[in-house]
């Protein structure tokens, strides 16, 4: 059986009305009487009419779709961001296209190229851990393409950005461990190039300094792929054991859950090591080791980033002044 895709012309013919009347009625135009709108909408519902997005995009020169690029959808933080994006996008009649980089800068670039070739109206992006060269994104922006960064942001890029107060969250987590009497606090973190890595390391250092604890670089371990591969966490733990630590501050969702997995299944005597980490996952509650969590308002971040992107897309004149919105984190104690 052939699929029937009804058009405005079909509705107009069936109701003996002009196509312009049908189009205006479907758009809830004030020019059409409530009675006519009712007839048109009831018939459209009856035949399960759906607007043709291709025809609409050709007419309006917009696709009514936005792209979002994250490192991994399975990451609890990013999945919650995407939920926030959807809550705004669909309400504003935008479809979203989601892609993953798996922390690859090459895949990130290819994803951006694919999405823009499909005529998306704008892009939401959290940079991959490998990303250093974003000249291709600058070229897109110079051509007037709307881009909003969230979570992992570049420094030199004039556009809207949405982040959390990473430095304060790291400070609070480290301070909490110090108040528990810990002084050899390790720090497990992501790629050195990421903005969140730099900000969270700064917060960690400031908490140590505020409590007159000397910073020991041997206690800081970088995982290039942010815990995407357990072997990089395993290697970091093996190195930390050699320098002795009584607590650890962990800089991300994957790193936190990965650390807990390795500790639980290994022979490391780390069950008594106090843990505080950035994580939006409830999975950490299932482990024997208790984790003090730094929670990020991921859903809210997705909402705000999408609102700002749509603002750029729908602006009648170029926007030249931008801001970085900084959201608060929350410390969830689990002593």
Describe it.
- The strands form two sheets. The protein has a six-stranded parallel sheet with strand order 2-1-3-4-5-11, sandwiched between helices. It has a six-stranded mixed sheet with strand order 7-6-8-9-10-12, with helices on both faces.
- The radius of gyration is 25 Å and the shape is elongated.
- The protein has 335 residues and is an alpha/beta fold.
Low-confidence stretches: none
The helix-strand sequence is HHHHEHEHEHEEHEHEHEHEEHEE
Q: What percent of residues are in strands?
A: 15-25%
| Largest beta sheet: strand ordering | 2-1-3-4-5-11
The mean pLDDT is 89
Largest sheet features: 6 strands, parallel
Find the structural class using helix and strand composition.
alpha/beta
Distance between the termini: 63 Å
Number of strands: 12
Please state the CA-atom Rg, rounded to the nearest Å: 25 Å
Q: What percent of the residues sit in helical stretches (DSSP H or I)?
A: 40-55%
Specify the overall morphology.
elongated
Q: Helix count, per DSSP?
A: 12
